[in-house]
């Protein structure tokens, strides 16, 4: 959930209700966000901070040696049962805490990775184990695993080098019993045979080559809007605001925008926030935070933990370093608080950290000056809109009558920069005063915590020396002018998120047991801000569809868009629902309807596992009907169901219906996910396979 945990929300509501009516009135009227923020600043009392502190305690993200040992033991149990994926996850939890047995945790994880066939990652963990002081007596064991990995990866010379190292270790080590020595030597000779066999089979690079070629896609960039294709243009009018329009007739499946997130924050996953009391045992459940890199969202194998907390985990040392440099050094000590305040508060903080203080400060100050101008103009009797347009025109410094569109830089270009993010609409007037108060109070809590923590961010672009600044922060009970600027910007971002947040989703394959038909579900990975994609206005009946790869979004046309038509997009439905009211009857009924569809889907899975293809197909057809009625026949949801049906028909040799279904699934999925999508490719392979079957066989089976 992106909003703060419920108890904090309820607390803020009670606090709002207890405010003096005149103060409530003042807060409701305070239009500039800076004023709202300043008014709320003294309202967060020590008692409130204490409450928040208690609320955050179960989300404690520090490192605990006892937790490391616990997770290692749990991992060993799973490893012995040959449940390597589960063991891997538990060892990853173990290495995210510090313990004297760190090297053993890494070594055990390398073994799990080896069994799962991830040899590169296994090698990295072996190096980590050795860097942490892996015991000498166990060296031969880990070095032999290293040799095996190198052989399997075709790195023969390195493998030979490691083998001779092991041999000399065994020769020198007096403590080895003769049996151990025998076992090791036998293993070595086996590996030598393997190495010899490898040498005679050349390694193919063709696969790697074709993969990079697939990544090269046709890309005709837009001259005015970075990350957008030339088929769209940016327009502005008072009724639609900024919006994107088709400059030519667009076909379904055509790419419209391809953009890297300005900022994204991984959703922590449910189980973390469900815990209510201080924990006595450690949670062995795997959450989103264990499965994906906290920076690039890549699926994690051998995660690299943050040096400071047990929460942040990364896919590589590089991601860990970049995250630390850009934002995590400030966020790390605030871990539990951020988990309590919710992802929106976290995104707001990360946005200002990524932008840097100099950039934030210059835009906030510029905004205040523009606002003063507007007030003066208003006093002269002009409307706000007129003034905005005319001042914008002057900024443009061009002869053209066309005013500069907000968020564009001086050259008229719209780039996915902080300036663009800063100018996203907050719709501050549409939020209830109570809700604005909750957001403000959350941001004030972050600012007060930042005052206590090490403030490296302010040193960027600030002329004051860092140490002087820090001393100043700790001394005064008041927030520094710098923190006030950051607070105002964060509040702005938090309110923007309610209409501009994009849920980054992924299809997660759950390979449960030996199920033949892959079960997949759409999961929410992160919440992100995409300044270009945000230019698309919201519609519940969108003409686009979005897919994600890591932190990058691709927007495609989901239906024909004639030239001149507006391009619209359906924003995060979870947020949409919260924005309106919590439950409306219609949604409730259709949810129930969808439940029937889910049951049919599960029945189909069950029959498929038993190899009863006809039964499975029958239930899946029912499920498809319901999904079609709910999401539409060309929706991505229907596409996924059709994909499952194609798999079942394929496995059941129902050739003609399979070919038909493959065609439908491919059409729908390639529109939404592009031709390189794994499911689309699999469909093509299924078709090729069916078409290759001998004719005689086809007739006999049908
Ligand atoms: Zn990463
Ligand atoms: Zn950390």
TrEMBL record:
It is found in: Cytoplasm; Nucleus. GO terms for cellular component: cytoplasm; nucleus. Residues 375-389 have a biased composition (Basic and acidic residues). The keyword S-adenosyl-L-methionine applies. GO terms for biological process: heart development; methylation. Pfam families: SET (PF00856), zf-MYND (PF01753). Residues 230-572 form the SET domain. Protein-lysine N-methyltransferase. Monomethylates PRMT5, modulating its transcriptional activity. May also act as a histone methyltransferase. Plays a critical role in cardiac development. Acts as a key epigenetic regulator of gene expression during cardiac development via its dual activities as a methyltransferase and negative regulator of HDAC1. This is Protein-lysine N-methyltransferase SMYD4. It comes from Platysternon megacephalum (big-headed turtle).
